[in-house]
Amino acid sequence: MTALNLFPSRTVAIYMARMFLVRTFAILAGLVLVLQALDLLSQSGNILAYPGNGDAQVWRYVSLRTPEIISTFLPFSVLLGTILTFVTMNQNSEVIALKASGLSAHQVLTPLLLASVGVAIVSFAFNDRVVSRASATLNQWQKVNYGPLPVDRGDRANVWVRDGDDLIQVGQSRGRGAATRLSDVVVYDRNGGALRAILRAPAGVKVANGWRIGPVSRFDVVAGRLETVPGMVIAKDVRPDQFTLSSVDPDGLSFGALRTTIADLRDAGRPTKALEGSLWHKLSSPLSAVLMPLLGAVAAFGLARSGQLFLRAAIGMALGFAYFVADNFALAMGNIGAYPPFLAAWAPFLLFLLIGEAVLVRTEE
């Protein structure tokens, strides 16, 4: 075995990876069944309370809720799968055999790390393509109390947009793109932060050089004079999609869609820090699967007959659950603006990566 080899053999690497993946997904399946059953018990009454709902709607809820449960508890399953794999190998003295062959602790851990990278890639794709759509549909369904879903025609209410110093409020926007129609338009004409005039119009449409509103009632704040004009063009640099973005649910958007939405909101002059944290978290959350084998590796080393195997497994579980607590706390701090978006999403991952490495090095010594 050369110094560049990560495992003693391909057979051992496949054996460890298969053991790890089987235990991980078996634990995940058990958690999903139990948690989905408990969740369904709490929600089935609300689903069936809507007139006409029956078994079909209950199963529809299960199909929409299950992806969210899988996404939430996959990292937990990876942690428990890691601990169970290493506890089994430790009890069978397989870890001792690998260490006796000259492997370091990092080399023993490598097959599980590579397998967890595959789990992280699958998790990201699953979250991006399945969970986001299921969450968006379930959120809309719950807003109508599990009744028929309304057709989303892109209508938005009470939209605010900034055009330079000016503020524009739209009571309702309909349609998309060049076909966007505005209703109850109010323009706060400002210069250097000082309000100069207030313009009101019942309707507005997209034209080549901006948005034509009319008839316009213009109140001159400085002169205290009210005048009416047939129409005027405003917001020359405002795009139609800036009027159609009123509220954003990051859990209901894919990574690419959320990134595009953040860019549109930023161009509209609206705050995006919380959404930027959620965007980064869509990357750091699947990668937590790669972190779990490192945190759970403490269960692999030490003699099983010393009586400390259970304690080591408990330490691994404590490290893993501490990561999830820190991750949720940092994300909450990012949502209220206390942490920068990048720090809120990545600080717990980097912190526990260092903690896991420190524990692993200490264990090896």
Automatic annotation (TrEMBL):
Pfam hit, one: LptF_LptG
Keyword Oxidoreductase among record annotations: no
Localization, UniProt: Cell membrane
One GO term describing the cellular component: ATP-binding cassette (ABC) transporter complex
UniProt keyword list: Cell membrane, Membrane, Transmembrane, Transmembrane helix
Regions that span the bilayer: 20-38, 69-87, 108-126, 309-326, 338-361
Swiss-Prot/TrEMBL GO biological process terms: lipopolysaccharide transport; transmembrane transport
The protein's name: LPS export ABC transporter permease LptG
